[in-house]
């Protein structure tokens, strides 16, 4: 069974109604991204940061996977599929993908400020005073700007061993995630699906790249139909 590695970004979730901070010149739902997605922002105003992610968590309960998520789930009928996503939502899982690596964390999880290596399922609001079992304040289980990306170690060999790589809905400008495609086998089939594809250095070095300039719901469905 051939191995497929999917690298997904905000573009696939956007079609389900989830906004990204790149839509508005660095603003995310009206907030400067560094106010709500950095350790400095947390230290300055933890109540505001918690409220921001509480709103995102509520929104996530109201949206649904789209045709692209479901199509990727269908690939598991014929391939060994691993999804490596920069997204913090659970739409890939709800769309039928059984192996998902969240590089930037998960909105439906929380962790203690002083105990970052243990995450807990958490679908309700997080409030000041909510403590993890180890006794420290809970915060969103999100990798903020300036923090390490521990899941990279898990993602790297998945990409390196894949026969097929599908890149979906990402600007390919956010590192270190954007550098993962540079680990691809020299003979891997690589597809890049995005309505406004951006060819970074790693992609420019590839001879076996096919660009599909479509939004995710169209491009992913078209490619999956071909692969199946």
Provide a quick synopsis of the model.
With 228 residues, this protein is α/β, with parallel strands linked by helices.
What does this structure look like?
The chain is α/β, with parallel strands linked by helices. It has two domains: 138 residues, Rossmann fold (3-Layer(aba) Sandwich); 78 residues, SIR2/SIRT2 'Small Domain' (2-Layer Sandwich). It has nine helices and eleven strands. The strands form three sheets. It has a six-stranded parallel β-sheet, with helices on both faces. α5 packs parallel to α9. The longest helix has 17 residues. The chain is globular and about 50 Å long. The two termini are 12 Å apart. The mean pLDDT is 93.
User: What is the distance, rounded to the nearest whole angstrom, between the alpha carbons of the first and last residues?
Assistant: 12 Å
Q: Which geometry do the CA atoms define?
A: globular
CATH topology of the largest domain: Rossmann fold
- How many domains make up the 3D coordinates? 2
């Amino acid at each position: 069974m051939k191995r497929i590695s999917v690298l997904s970004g905000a573009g696939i979730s956007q079609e389900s109604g989830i906004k990204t901070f790149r839509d508005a010149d660095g603003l995310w739902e009206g907030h400067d991204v560094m106010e709500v997605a950095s350790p400095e922002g947390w230290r300055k105003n933890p109540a505001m940061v918690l409220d921001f992610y509480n709103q995102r968590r509520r929104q996530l309960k109201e949206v649904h996977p789209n045709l692209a998520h479901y199509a990727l789930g269908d690939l598991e009928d014929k391939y060994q599929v691993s999804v490596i996503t920069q997204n913090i939502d659970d739409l890939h899982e709800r769309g039928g993908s059984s192996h998902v690596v969240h590089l930037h964390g998960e909105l439906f999880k929380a962790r203690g400020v002083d105990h970052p290596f243990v995450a807990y399922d958490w679908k309700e609001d997080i409030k000041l005073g909510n403590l993890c079992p180890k006794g420290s304040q809970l915060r969103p289980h999100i990798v903020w700007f300036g923090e390490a990306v521990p899941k990279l170690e898990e993602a790297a060999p998945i990409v390196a061993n894949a026969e097929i790589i599908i890149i979906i809905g990402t600007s390919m400008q956010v590192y270190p995630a954007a550098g993962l495609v540079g680990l691809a086998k020299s003979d891997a089939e690589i597809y890049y699906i995005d309505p406004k594809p951006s060819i970074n250095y790693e992609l420019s070095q590839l001879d076996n790249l096919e660009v599909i300039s479509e939004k995710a719901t169209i491009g992913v469905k078209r490619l999956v139909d071909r692969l199946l």
